[in-house]
Amino acid sequence: MATAPRALTPLSQLAKPVADWVANVASLTKPDRIHWCDGSHGEIRELRSELIASGELHALEQKNFPGCDLYRSHPGDVARVEKVTFICTTKQDDAGPNNLWMSPADGHARMRELFSGCMKGRTLYVVPYCMGPIDSPLARCGVEITDSAYVVLNMAIMTRMGRPALERIASGDTFVRGLHSIGELDPNRRFIMHYPEDLAIESFGSGYGGNALLGKKCHALRIASWQARQEGWLAEHMLIVGLENPAGEQHYIAAAFPSACGKTNLAMLIPPDSLKGWKVTTVGDDIAWLHPGADGRLWAINPEAGYFGVVPGTNPSTNRNAYDMIRRDTLFTNVAVTADNQPWWEGLDSGAPVTDWQGRPYDPKNGPSAHPNSRFTVAATQNPSYSPHAEDPQGVPISAIVFGGRRRSVAPLVYEARDFNHGVLLGAGMASEQTAAAEGKVGIVRRDPMAMKPFCGYNFADYWAHWLDIGARLARPPRIYHVNWFRRDAQGKFLWPGFGDNLRVLAWMLERSAGRGGATETAIGNLPRASDLNLAGLDIAPDALAALLAIDNAEWRKEAAEIRAYLGEFGSRLPAALVHELAALEARLALRAWS
Ligand code: SAT
Ligand code: MN
User: Fold this and answer.
1) Tell me, which fold does domain 235-305+389-590 have in CATH?
2) In 491-514, which positions are buried (b, 16+ CB within 10 angstroms) versus exposed (e)?
3) Which of 109-118, 136-145, 157-166, 430-439 has the lowest average pLDDT?
4) 80 lines ligand 1 (CB under 6 A)
5) Around 435, how many Cα atoms within 13 Å sit in the side-chain half-sphere?
6) pLDDT surpasses 50 at 595
7) Which atom of ligand 1 is nearest to the CA of 308?
């Protein structure tokens, strides 16, 4: 006789520590209903229909954009807010000058007041999720409690969300507790608090991106960086891209750039026609968890399952893969709409907006039709270049680490660190022009070490020491590079074409790793000569190339002085080896004059 299938344990009874926490939160926030998310297709379909019926979500034209919706966030809630993002550690020094700090007691007291009764009339969603492949020992779980169904829809795409994650927690995995409420979306009652010592997050008053999708920056970077330091790995703001050269050699590169500096485009790069035989695959576009492997190499997983990418500028010539991938089952946030009810954004060469990102009739006087930080949320599996190794439980081995900023001057197209410790200085000394991904004035150059300024959950001085420790543990450390795709000429024009042509720079790095690529030694590191780069089929003026590969000694002395001043903020906590690297750079700059 066939046995009846065993009924599944209700989610609410699967993991007692989660159930107890949910009960506590419910008694504080007083929701009308509690919904445990199982992550099933049916659940997502239902949530979507509910949001469309209530007008919170706008279904786009379904013939050409099947499964695509538009969400308009509150106009005052369109980016991460760093000025209300806090790290709450017992000792202030553990958070460091790179973070805003509050004591855990003060943080909890302030948030308790905000959360009190905040879910009256609303549904409390329990969102169990796993960051990283569900069967990976390197993955980590979390549970987000939220009163935003939009957040649930995003988390369902961005993470492994639902029953399997809760089962992993039930089997004894630790989990990060993230409590989120959109509150009243009042910017004056908005806080994003992190308690790394307790693996907890509390976020109130925003429904947008990194403020609200707690698995992303809050968990996978701020809390995970703290965990990683304790456990001997690194949680980094890096894409992971696979490159196969024409000889069939497979390499992976991890690259850190600040938000909205092209990580998604680089991760999904399409080789230019003139570079025959190269294959590029995407492992991740925003976050990498890097672990020293038994073989002395660094291994990386992408903790995320989807992309939360910047929309404007996406078109068939900048990023064909992304352009194709977001034509179905994509959740758009803050884009414009055409007369045919299709999504529209600046950078498309056909169609025209009739409704702007705020839902108003489009008027160029109001600025761009799509918000500069408008986003797509889409499953990574929809990416045509998704790597067949993206879900390998042990990750992929990293041959090179790249740091990059958006600098109109100073930083050349590419240079290579002399060794791992020097590479840590390259990362620590990074600077970039501010973008629309966070509140603040766009274009101002700020120090953004390892592209982690907004995301490192502890004192940068300790973080750099941790990087140096990891390097010392690697028998086969990756080479480290710095790139700048954004250098401009005196007229403000970009000197380098970027996008697919960036492969020329990555290819040089891999040649260097293989011991083949040529370079010239300079005070700041090793630079390719024009003849060391594969420039076949590239139309670039010799002057532009020379400018891209030039180093101005006086400018660099100034840069080194700025790095010294910045690192000085970390005082005696700075690791000696980093101070030594800086002094060595200054000495090399003093010794040689290029200008
Ligand atoms: O809003 S997010 O933090 O998710 C996007 C970004 O700034 O990188
Ligand atoms: Mn990012």
Assistant:
1) Phosphoenolpyruvate Carboxykinase; domain 3 (3.90.228)
2) eeeebbebbbbbbbbbbbbbbbbe
3) 430-439
4) yes
5) 22
6) no
7) 4
Closest ligand to residue 218's CA: 1
Q: Which residue has the tokens 């080789």?
A: 271
Tens of pLDDT, residues 522-543:
999 999 999 999 999 999 999 9
- Distance, in Å, from the CA atom of 482 to the CA atom of 524, rounded to the nearest integer, reads 10
Superfamily of domain 307-379: Phosphoenolpyruvate Carboxykinase, domain 2 (2.170.8.10)
Residue of the CA atom closest to atom 8 of ligand 1: 259
Q: Report the C-alpha gap between 309 and 311 in whole angstroms.
A: 6
Which residues does the annotation mark as catalytic?
261
Q: What are 338-361's pLDDT values in tens digits? A: 999 999 999 999 999 999 999 999
> From the CA of 24, how far away is ligand 2's center (Å)?
32
Best residue among 217, 310, 373 to mutate for probing ligand 1's pocket (most ligand atoms within 8 Å of CB) is 217
For residue 83, the one-letter residue type is: K
Confidence band of 440 (pLDDT split at 50, 70, 90): confident
- 14-56+79-232: CATH class: alpha beta
Does 223 contact ligand 1 (Cβ within 6 A)?
no
Q: Cα of 193 to ligand 1 centre, how many Å? A: 16
Q: Which of 73, 78, 80 to mutate to test the pocket of ligand 1 (most atoms within 8 A of CB)?
A: 80
